[in-house]
């Protein structure tokens, strides 16, 4: 092939003018995509404009141009705020994931040569208190070249608006664009202090729970008393799950129960040490739940060395849903 023919082929993108993969990509209006992602995330033009430090009119123009490019409405303006159309709901998680991965890559490039790898890990509060601290300590001892940035929040599923490398989440089984490794499925057993349990002697479980103070764990986007309602349904009990005290974390609810404050539903494997030590007494049968703890990450990160190490470490410790890792002899901190 002559030099001139080769140059013509390069400009055309391939043999006989075939376009290259890059030239086939549609033009992406990054500012408009960023504007839509902010409005959709905040559900408000006002809040999105403030977060991006631009005017609402500019933001509105960007979103309008993106809708023109796609040929579909992405947002609906309502008196109560902004709602996503089906097209907008399909686009938002793709954009958010893409922006997160771009940010992660840029952060990684900045850190190259600047020191150890920083791994951003999220764990629910109770998991972090009971298991996470010792797991992270053991991981750091095994892999001192990987630094850990730990965050924690209560709720179901992945926390919103957080840039994470890997997360342990409390959730139901679901199919999405994430890799999810089940660590274990959560069960529920009613438990209380020995003093409260003694008062239940000779009474039916239904009668005891109708009179006892029920202790709840609050979950974002879940109704009050969801676990007690499910337990009563499975056991055929006439318990009013709407009463009692609610706590931000299971660890706080368990501490209140051990102090004689009421009856809490515990996951046996999580709180077995307290039961064995006599600080908690189970007063009813165990039922299964739809919830579990999952190790979650993005499939694009499966080959990241630090994430792969952490994933393998945690899966080996929990043996794919088997017994929990051994706990230290001291009680967890409040």
CATH homologous superfamily designation of the largest domain: Periplasmic binding protein-like II
Question: Which descriptor suits the 3D outline?
Answer: globular
CATH topology of the largest domain: D-Maltodextrin-Binding Protein, domain 2
Count of strand segments:
11
| Mean pLDDT over all positions | 83
Characterization of the model:
The protein is of the alpha/beta class and 334 residues long. It folds into 3 domains: 3-108, Arc Repressor Mutant, subunit A; 117-180 and 295-318, D-Maltodextrin-Binding Protein, domain 2, CATH 3.40.190; 184-291, 3-Layer(aba) Sandwich (D-Maltodextrin-Binding Protein, domain 2), CATH 3.40.190.10. It is 43% helix and 19% strand. It is built from 13 helices and 11 strands. The strands form 2 sheets. Strands 3, 4, 5, 6, 7, 8, 9, 10 and 11 form a 9-stranded mixed β-sheet that branches. Helix 3 crosses helix 4, helix 3 packs across helix 5 and helix 3 crosses helix 6. The protein starts with a helix and ends in a 16-residue tail after the last helix.
Short structural description:
This protein has 334 residues and is of the alpha/beta class. Helices cover 43% and strands 19% of the residues. It folds into 3 domains: 3-108, Arc Repressor Mutant, subunit A (Orthogonal Bundle); 117-180 and 295-318, 3-Layer(aba) Sandwich (D-Maltodextrin-Binding Protein, domain 2); 184-291, Periplasmic binding protein-like II (D-Maltodextrin-Binding Protein, domain 2).
